[in-house]
């Protein structure tokens, strides 16, 4: 059994788990307001915008990762796939605690800043490097 036979489905499933949790957080924003009636409307709007922005940027980052992965640019990079599996696993665990334990909203920004944004940028860099390498090899023919 090849290592890619294990890494490919694992990376895909961890990315899907990450996306599902982000969509769960987006869906629970209104329910959180209904449960916390002690907030004013302006506080809720500010919190809603902050969490919505963090969730939106996180979803964009995951779609960048999935687009590069499913496009075949980084599908067979074993180290990159392993790193994404570990990072998505940690993010899924932390987002699960965020949902179940009612962590403060800035925790979502920390999760995004440490586990999503840098690795989406890494994925974009790897995709660009792969694209440049393909174009250079075409010109040498």
From TrEMBL:
Q: Where are the transmembrane segments?
A: 12-30, 50-72, 79-98, 110-134
Q: Which InterPro entries match?
A: TMEM107
Keyword NADP attributed: no
Source organism superkingdom: Eukaryota
Q: Which GO terms describe its cellular component?
A: membrane; MKS complex
Intracellular or extracellular location(s): Membrane
Q: Name one GO biological process term.
A: protein localization to ciliary transition zone
Q: Which UniProt keywords apply?
A: Cilium biogenesis/degradation, Membrane, Transmembrane, Transmembrane helix
Q: Report the protein name in the record.
A: Transmembrane protein 107
* Species per Swiss-Prot/TrEMBL record: Planoprotostelium fungivorum
